[in-house]
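Hi D.,

Good news: the full-assembly prediction came through. Inputs first.
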Amino acid sequence: MALKGAMKLYLTCPMCDADIPVSGDEKVGSEIYCPYCQTPLKLRKTKDTEELYLQEDF
Ligand SMILES: [Zn+2]
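Then the structure:
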């Protein structure tokens, strides 16, 4: 596979510390399931740096 195109983004699962690949197209607030521990996670963005992170969403 060529490496060109969309940059792959990895976010860390707060529960199991796994790297979860996201496309970057996900909207803030969208739900993602951790493929490793099946925890429902919500995509969030920090106010200051606009960095994406995942938060448990039970
Ligand atoms: Zn996990």
